[in-house]
């Protein structure tokens, strides 16, 4: 498996620089194409939100305000993209359709501005990408970035590279795999294989409290060896702290700059209410996380 097309959805400018930096670095590693996607306001989504009992003039003002804000976001994101590709000297290619960049031979980038239902546009684009890079959702209520993440995880079948607000100085040199025997964790390993093959060190983290019915850590090590990847196994866990906290601490101890793990082995609703490893990593990780479901 080789990475040829990387999708990077950017709804706004918050933490966009770190996401662009990681997306560009991965594209450079594989001589891949980085497709930056911005989805603007869809009037069909805005219309029902204006409510009833408003005058025509009030409705028009609300629509005009929404369009103005959408245009400002587009201009801001496009400006960041232009500055980034100029600074990094990444060739920009045109797109003859939203899914068919022309001239994708070697390192390149494109900017796609699209309007429509955000979840649908992003998940459709993701399905014909090798991997998706996304900024870490803001746990204090950044609804758009959270919706984008879950659209990709649940509706695209792609792995997601989740970038913290401050990206680590290295990308994929020391990678930890959070293993629990599930199909979600196996899918994450599959999507991360190109990066795992390039890593200087790979560590498989497992815990009795995290393990589900399925292959064990030693089986993962055997599988990775078939791909020429040598990995070490580490057991983690304590009686006093949540699994996610222990796993992230172990990654820090090993000097990892990336974690590979499955997402939502338990239901999303249960994790929202009771917490869980996925939720902990999304809210607290200061290293890059590759998730899949």
Automatic annotation (TrEMBL):
Show the InterPro entries listed in the entry. Answer: Universal_stress_UspA, UspA
Q: Locate the UspA domain: which residues?
A: 173-291
List residues traversing the bilayer. none
Name the domain of life: Bacteria
Q: What SUPFAM superfamilies has UniProt attached to this entry?
A: Adenine nucleotide alpha hydrolases-like
State the family it belongs to: Belongs to the universal stress protein A family.
PANTHER family to which the protein is assigned, alphabetical: STRESS RESPONSE PROTEIN NHAX, UNIVERSAL STRESS PROTEIN HP_0031
Q: What is this protein called?
A: Universal stress protein family protein
The source organism is Komagataeibacter europaeus
């Amino acid at each position: 498996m080789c990475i040829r097309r990387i999708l990077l959805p950017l709804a706004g400018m918050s933490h966009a620089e770190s996401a662009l930096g990681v997306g560009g670095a991965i594209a450079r590693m594989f001589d891949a194409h980085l497709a930056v996607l911005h989805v603007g306001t869809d009037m069909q989504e805005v219309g029902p939100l204006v409510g009833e009992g408003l005058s025509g003039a009030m409705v028009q003002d609300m629509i005009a305000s929404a369009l103005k804000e959408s245009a400002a976001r587009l201009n801001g994101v496009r400006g960041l993209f232009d500055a980034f590709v100029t600074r990094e000297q990444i060739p920009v290619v045109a797109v003859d359709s939203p899914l068919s960049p022309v001239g994708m031979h070697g390192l390149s980038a494109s900017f796609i501005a699209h309007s429509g239902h955000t979840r649908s546009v992003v998940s459709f684009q993701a399905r014909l990408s090798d991997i998706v890079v996304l900024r870490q959702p803001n746990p204090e209520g950044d609804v758009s970035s959270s919706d984008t993440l879950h659209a990709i995880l649940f509706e695209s079948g792609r792995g997601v590279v989740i970038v913290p607000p401050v990206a680590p100085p290295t990308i994929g040199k020391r990678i930890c795999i959070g293993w629990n025997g599930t199909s979600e964790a196996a899918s994450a390993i599959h999507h991360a294989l190109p990066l795992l093959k390039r890593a200087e060190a790979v560590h498989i983290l497992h815990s009795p409290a995290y393990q589900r019915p399925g292959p064990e850590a030693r089986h993962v090590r055997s599988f990775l060896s078939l791909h020429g990847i040598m990995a070490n196994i580490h057991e983690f866990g304590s009686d006093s702290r949540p699994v996610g906290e222990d796993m992230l601490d172990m990654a820090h101890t090993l000097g990892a700059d990336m974690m590979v793990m499955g997402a939502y082995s338990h239901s999303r609703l249960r994790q929202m209410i009771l917490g869980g490893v996925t939720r902990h990593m999304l809210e607290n990780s200061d290293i890059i996380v590759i998730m899949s479901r």
